[in-house]
Specification:
homodimer; 166 residues; alpha+beta; two-stranded antiparallel ribbon; 6 helices; 4 strands
C-alpha cells in the first residue's frame, strides 16, 4: 500500500518506519545480520520476487542501511553489507524477535533462537528502563513535543490526549 | 503489497511482522501507548483513510494486540485498548524510536522525546546484552535452528551461511 511519507515527521518512530517499515525490509536486514551478503542468497532464503528484492535492496542502500561492496572472494559479484546505521537496527530486530517468541508460538512450536556465541545461552530480554535503571511501563512515560516553531508537520502525538507530557 | 504469510515460519521476527509489520499498524500501537483510544482520535492524529484505519484496527484486535471496550465515559463510543500483548510491543517501539533519533534527524531538527515521568529525563538506550550482562554486537551472536522434524516451512535463516550456529 502506498502511504504518505513521514520523512518530515517530528516522531522518530514514524521516520524510522519510512525506511524500514516495509515487511520485507526488516527480513532483509535480519538476514544481513546473519551474514547473508549476496542477491541470490537473499532471494533463496526470503523466497521473494527478484524485482521486489531488487527494489528493497536499492531502497535500503539509498537510506544508508546497506552498502554495496565488491565480493569478498574477488569474484564479479556485488555484496550487500550492513552499515553502522544498519547494524544499529539490532535492538529493533531483537525486540521484534522477543515479542514473537513470547506471543506468536504455541507451546512445543519450535522457533529459531539467538544465542550469545560465548556462553551459547539466549540473549537477555530487552527492557525499557529509566536512566537510573528503573523498569518503566507505558504509564510511567510521557512524551515531550518540541515547541511549534521547530516543528515541520503531522503526524505526531498531540498534547491533547491523556498521558501526554506538559 | 500482498505477501505470503509468515504465520508458520520458525523465525519469531517473521511471525511478528505478520501482525505488526505493516507501516500503519505500529503507528496505531504507538498512539495507543500514548493514551489514544477512539477511532476519531486515531484518525485525526494519523491522517489516514477511515476504511484503512478500520481494517488495521480490526486486524490488531483479531491478533490480540488491541481489544475493543465500551467507552470509559459511559458514552456509546467504542474504545480500543492495548492488551498485555499490545503493551509488550513497548521495547519494539522504543527501539525504532531510538534508531530514528540517532539516524533520521539532522542536528537542530527537533523531534519528540519520551521521558520518564518521575525524573523527566529521557529513557535509557536499549542495549543487546548476554544473560550475564555483556554488550553483544552482531558478530557475537549465533542463531540456533530447531531440528527438521519440528519445523514447518521457509523462510528462515539456514545453516549454510557464515556466522550461523552449529
Amino acid at each position: 500500500m502506498k502511504h504518505k511519507s513521514n520523512e518530515t515527521s517530528i516522531c522518530p518512530v514514524a521516520r524510522s518506519l519510512d525506511v524500514i517499515g516495509e515487511w520485507w525490509s526488516l527480513l532483509i536486514v535480519r538476514d544481513a545480520m546473519l551474514g547473508v551478503k549476496r542477491f541470490s542468497d537473499f532471494q533463496r532464503r526470503l523466497g521473494m520476487a527478484k524485482n521486489i528484492l531488487s527494489a528493497r535492496l536499492k531502497r535500503l542502500a539509498e537510506a544508508g542501511v546497506l552498502e554495496i561492496v565488491p565480493a569478498s572472494d574477488g569474484s564479479a559479484y556485488q555484496e550487500y553489507e550492513l552499515t553502522e546505521k544498519g547494524k544499529a537496527l539490532q535492538p529493533t530486530l531483537l525486540a521484534l524477535r522477543q515479542w514473537g517468541e513470547q506471543f506468536m508460538f504455541s507451546p512445543g512450536d519450535a522457533h529459531s533462537t539467538l544465542v550469545d556465541k560465548r556462553s551459547r545461552k539466549p540473549l537477555a530480554k530487552l527492557e525499557v528502563r529509566s536512566i537510573d535503571g528503573r523498569r518503566l511501563g507505558t504509564d510511567d512515560i510521557d512524551i515531550i513535543i518540541p515547541p511549534e516553531p521547530q516543528r515541520r508537520r503531522v503526524p505526531h502525538p498531540s498534547r491533547t490526549s491523556r498521558r501526554v507530557g506538559k
